[in-house]
Amino acid sequence: MHNSKNFIPFSFLILIFRFSNALDCSSPPKVIDVNQSGQGGSFTTIQSAIDSIPVTNTQWTHIRISAGTYTETVFIAKNRPCIFLEGAGSSSTIVQASNHDTMSTSPTLTSLAEDIIAKDITFQNTYNNPGFAHANAVGILPALAAKVEGDRSAFYNCAFKGVQDTLWDRSGLHYYNNCYIQGAIDFIFGDGQSIYEKCTINVTTGIDGPIIDGVITAQKRESMDSTTGFVFKECTISGTKWKAELGRAYGPYSRVIIANSYLSDIVRPEGWSTWGKSEENLVYVEVNNTGSGANNPNRVKWMKTLSEDELKSFLDISYVDIDGWIAKQRKANNF
């Protein structure tokens, strides 16, 4: 059915309000090296490198992280913007921790600042992963790999690994390109305004994990006027052992759009859940997808169909790249 009542176009006044005070990080970037051996006067931990950056920094700082497994939590405070974290590849530079229980205290990466880039790094929370066999594990608990809430945050070739609540895309304009996101329960959640492009979404608790049905997204859009939502374009959604819903409504106006993507047979036939919310206010859209998990005739009947113009407004990069910040960031940091 066609229902566009929840489509709200961007207004000129909203854009002025949001971006009139946007930070313009200066370049060329200052370079800091992180190496576990400490060679060449570099820092041995990622956090110590971040802490060396002056607060209210306005110059790009490029933190180059050598290959290795860094067992630490990484915290980027709101007053430390303009940071570019670059690893040696997501299979080579791994940041891990095992904090758990609460969403606020468990993230391996917490990024609160504006203008943050991460590239070629894995962020993982090992608590629920049976391969790590934590002695104190008492069943699956919230254990986040990352929490992201600053505007103009971009992730390239990164991996986020967890089981429950892997990636808290809490708020802000975010762009994820060619990333790998792994989990089983609400593992991409929050109220961000985000595009996930050419990403792999893998539903699993690990090779020895319990066989349970899961949920991929839990988007928290809270009003009809809100512009937030999760957009997945040219992605691959797959997994092992069991089925998963594409999403359930964390907020009363939850919005998720999946387009031009491959959906394997791990997707449950109904696809979506209201989670107790009013179905008429939810915006769940699937369009031009392929694979055995796509185009199921048993999908919920209250899925939305957008007009061509409405769909374009979400799939176009301008949905998150409102003032061209993505290209500006890449140019300033030479990639």
From TrEMBL:
Its taxonomic path starts at: Eukaryota, Viridiplantae, Streptophyta, Embryophyta, Tracheophyta
Protein's cellular compartments: Secreted, Cell wall
Instruction: From the UniProt record, give one GO term of the biological process aspect.
Output: pectin catabolic process
Checking InterPro entries in the record gives:
Pectin_lyas_fold (IPR012334), Pectin_lyase_fold/virulence (IPR011050), Pectinesterase_Asp_AS (IPR033131), Pectinesterase_cat (IPR000070)
Question: What's one GO MF term for it?
Answer: pectinesterase activity
Q: What is this protein called?
A: Pectinesterase
Boundaries of every Pectinesterase catalytic domain copy? 34-314
**Subcellular location, principal:** secreted
Q: Which domain of life is it from?
A: Eukaryota
